[in-house]
Design a protein that fits this description.
The protein has 13 helices and 12 strands. The protein is an alpha+beta fold. It has 2 domains: about 180 residues, no CATH class; about 210 residues, no CATH class. Strands 1, 4, 5, 6, 7, 8, 9, 10, 11 and 12 form a 10-stranded mixed sheet that branches. Strands 2-3 form a two-stranded antiparallel sheet. The longest helix has about 40 residues. The two termini are about 25 Å apart.
Length: about 425
């Protein structure tokens, strides 16, 4: 009798004892469902949180001039690196635009007074110059109005997008769009209003910020011997590629800034994904805990399967005697019962995997819309575990069945 015949014999035995097979399969299904379900839930929740964190800037990094704050070290003055110039920033953007979304910005003025025809703000308004990608990379949402047009960005027209606190102060009862405000000695037309965000420690955040085209900011007269220091923000679509893109950005900026080989960077890169790093650590612990819980559940299921297989051997003692009397070897008997255990485990495992995926995605959907996830790695792990459990739980009963004496087996009742 070959392996195929043993498989068919195992399937016939399963069919003839359908109720016992279903109960045995359910034991395995519950164990696999616990394992796959918990791990699927962790993966799905992580995916959902990744999407949330991405909208908060977790898939981006900033490039700024390296500032060692002067002073000295080991009796030598620290090197003061030049600011990131407009040419540096623009060149970087050109080289990285195929791999990421890059925005350039510059802090034009702080502690600024903004006026309209009848009122003015406190001297606590920040003026920022930004390009066409600034709102996107900073995750700023327009409550009303529009963003900058390509013409306004290229030629530096006097238009502005204002924060909600400025709107409430200067235009409390009317729409600010189309109105004019004055600051830094220039008159600007309001074309948009940012949604209210609030700020920590009373700073106001973007609610006290005015955004103007970057080219407009470059045209505003500045104090003698002062230059704009440009900030670069790079955002990517896939957070898991952040390290690779950061490495590429470092090489490009070193080349642009002409940093000599062996010299430290004249700029610094700051990641915006501290939340994502914490999430990865937490999800790692959750996966470990989920795997342990699922494994313990599966261990209990394997003990139950072994017990049922032992009962099956006792019930089929006469059948074993008949088969041995007809010439079946101990190896063939052992193989039949072993294959029967493995088939039951696989059938139960498939049901458990399906239920586990549904359960995991259902739990994850309670905290947010993360999409339906099929964790193929855990599917293959689950099926592999099913085969292992089938072998481990079925070997002893199969070995015991193969060692039965055929004469004593035929007499068994």
């Amino acid at each position: 009798m070959n392996v195929l015949e043993n498989i068919l014999e195992g399937l016939r035995a399963i069919q003839s004892n359908l109720l016992r097979t279903i109960l045995t399969g359910l034991i395995i299904a519950i164990g696999i469902m616990s394992l796959v379900g918990i791990l699927t839930a962790v993966d799905s929740m992580k995916y959902s949180l990744e999407q949330t964190f991405s909208s908060l800037g977790a898939n981006s990094f900033d490039i700024r001039r390296y500032n060692n704050f002067g002073g000295s070290r080991d009796g030598r003055a620290n090197k003061v690196y030049p600011i990131i110039s407009y040419d540096n920033a623009r060149r970087y953007k050109q080289l990285m635009e195929d791999n990421a979304v890059v925005s350039l910005s510059a802090h034009i003025s702080g502690a600024t007074v903004v006026k309209n025809e009848i009122d003015k703000t406190n001297p606590n308004i920040n003026i920022v110059g930004g390009d066409e990608n600034y709102l996107q990379t900073q995750n700023l949402i327009l409550g009303r109005g529009r963003g900058f047009s390509s013409f306004e960005l290229e030629y530096g027209t006097n238009v502005a997008i204002i924060g909600s606190e400025i709107k409430d102060k200067l235009f409390p009862k009317t729409d600010a769009n189309g109105k004019f405000i004055t600051f830094l000695g220039r008159r600007f037309k309001v074309i948009g209003e940012l949604e209210k965000k609030g700020g920590s420690m009373g700073g106001g955040g973007t609610d006290r910020t005015i955004i103007i085209p970057l080219e407009t900011g470059r045209q505003i007269p500045r104090a003698e011997n002062t230059q704009l220091n440009y900030n670069i923000k790079t955002a990517i679509a896939k957070p898991n590629e952040l390290n690779y893109v950061m490495g590429e950005a470092t090489g490009i900026m070193r080349n642009i800034r002409q940093d000599a080989l062996g010299q430290e960077n004249s700029f610094e890169i700051r990641r915006s994904d501290s939340l994502m790093q914490s999430l990865n650590e937490i999800s790692g612990f959750l996966k470990m805990g989920g795997f342990i819980i699922g494994f313990i559940t599966l261990l209990g299921a394997s003990v139950g399967l072994m017990n049922i297989m032992m009962v099956s051997v006792n019930e089929r003692t006469q059948e074993i005697g008949v088969r041995k009397a007809l010439g079946a070897t101990a190896k063939q008997i052992r193989q039949q019962f072993l294959i029967e255990a493995i088939v039951i485990c696989i059938l139960g495992g498939i049901v458990g995997i399906v239920l586990g995926i549904l359960m995991g995605n259902g739990i994850a959907s309670l905290i947010g819309e993360g999409g339906f996830i099929v964790p193929w790695i855990w599917v293959f792990v689950g099926l592999s575990i099913c085969v292992f459990v089938g072998v481990a739980s079925g070997y002893y009963p199969a070995s015991r069945a193969s060692k039965l004496d055929p004469i004593e087996s035929l007499r068994y009742e």
